[in-house]
Design brief:
There is one protein chain. The protein is of the alpha+beta class. It is built from 11 helices and 18 strands. The chain folds into 3 domains: 2-135, Translation, Eukaryotic Peptide Chain Release Factor Subunit 1, Chain A (2-Layer Sandwich), CATH 3.30.960.10; 139-289, no CATH class; 293-394, 60s Ribosomal Protein L30, Chain: A (2-Layer Sandwich), CATH 3.30.1330. The longest helix is centred in the middle third of the chain and has 21 residues, at 207-227.
């Protein structure tokens, strides 16, 4: 069994990325999807190996009930049985996400809570994993304290401080003096892009106060220059700013890192706010934020006429399978809804072949959209256009 092992350089867990999700969407036919929450011995939970053994008989029954021949069902189930033997006696701090098709199995180690599920459908059920990746996506929080600037890397509920290189400007007191003629001084900072509703921060009209402001801005300019090489080029992770209004507004005047989250965290270690609190607020800000690509997609949807979009789930599934969906918007946390995808898409299934007669429809729409090079945008219910659970923009 292939185990995907491409963790962040500073995290021990192996997790899927967006490329892996897209590869999973390329599979069709009989597909087994298994999610197993973590198991810690002594905590009263059933081991992952035992859960696989208990669920294998039900999976086989589902496969046969979908019209699949028994020998093919055995081929699909064999990797799960091998995994059960491999995991016997082990406790894992990671959850498991396992995907088995006729082309072979893939396993991911997921460092988040995942609800147990064993599913047989005509496509891999990626929606739960997609939602978990959205909730727990990697991000950075820049703590703009004047006495100890630090950078946190957050991944799910975990966070840790990034080691800053020698020479990184850590404190305003140690930054050095700065001087400039009074006639060049300005007394207001534009809040700049990516700082939510903050419009600007006034620093007073006296030359002394303006000099302090310019020194602060040069301090933030030096932080920005030293920060950019530390942030990954691909994928470009969200950056959340944490600090006082004045510090955030000053930093925004020099910041050009594009995925800076619009909502900021008003709190600082200078006033005693713990790292754990700042990291939690940064996670929430990043999860609630719309990226530039999402904003452009929503604008495309809003500009399109009624004849180029739909909010009907069955129509979204059908048009996604036809390759007509350019942008699919899905509300996170939507309750599953099942249907006969073969019938919805007008597919005739020959006797003895696998039938997609009871597949989760939202997941099907997502997978079919990705498979045909459309874009899927998983949003919070409040961010959804027309306040619906699904919305599709057609190519034609």
């Amino acid at each position: 069994m292939r185990t995907v092992m491409e963790p962040s350089a500073r995290f021990d867990h192996a997790v899927p990325d967006w490329k892996d999700l897209h590869l999973l969407c390329g599979e069709e036919g009989p597909c087994l999807t298994v999610y197993l929450n973590r198991h810690v011995p002594g905590r009263g939970t059933v081991s992952q190996a035992d859960r696989i053994r208990r669920g294998s008989a039900e999976l086989k029954e589902q496969l046969l009930g979908r019209g699949l021949a028994a020998p093919v069902a055995e081929i699909l189930l064999e990797p799960l049985r091998e995994l059960a033997e491999e995991e016997t006696g082990k406790g894992r701090s990671e959850s498991l996400a396992i995907f088995c098709s006729v082309h072979g199995p893939t396993r991911f180690l997921v460092p988040w809570e995942m609800d147990d599920a064993m599913l047989v459908e005509g496509r891999f059920v990626v929606k739960p994993l997609w939602e978990a990746m959205r909730r727990n996506r990697r991000l950075y929080a820049l703590l703009l304290a004047r006495h100890d600037v630090r950078l946190l890397e957050c991944y799910g509920t975990q966070y840790q401080e990034v080691r800053l290189p020698v020479g990184f400007p850590r404190s305003l007191d140690g930054f050095g003096d700065f001087d400039q003629p009074d006639h060049l001084l300005r007394n207001r900072s534009s809040a700049g892009p990516g700082v939510g509703t903050m419009k600007g921060v006034a620093f007073g009209t006296g030359a002394g106060r303006d000099k302090d402001y310019l020194r602060l801005r040069e301090f933030h300019r030096a932080i920005h220059a030293a920060l950019l090489p530390l942030l990954p080029a691909q994928p470009r992770c969200p950056l959340v700013l944490a600090g006082t209004e004045a510090d955030i507004a000053s930093f925004a005047t020099v910041n050009c890192y594009e995925p800076t989250v619009g909502d900021v965290v008003l709190g600082s270690t200078d006033d005693g706010t713990p790292d754990a609190v700042l990291a939690g607020l940064a996670r929430q800000a990043a999860m609630d934020a719309l990226g530039d690509a999402e904003k452009r997609a929503l604008q495309r949807y809003e500009r399109a006429g009624i004849g180029r979009r739909t909010v009907e789930l069955l129509e979204a599934v059908r048009s996604a399978a036809e390759g007509r969906v350019a942008d699919l918007f899905v509300a996170a946390g939507t309750a599953p809804e099942y249907g006969n995808v073969d019938e919805i898409c007008g597919r005739a299934v020959e006797p003895g072949h696998f039938e997609s007669n009871s597949d989760e429809l939202m997941n099907t729409a997502m997978v079919e959209t990705v498979r045909r090079h459309g874009h899927v945008w998983l949003l919070s219910p409040e961010q959804m256009p027309d306040s619906v659970s699904v919305a599709a923009l057609w190519r034609y």
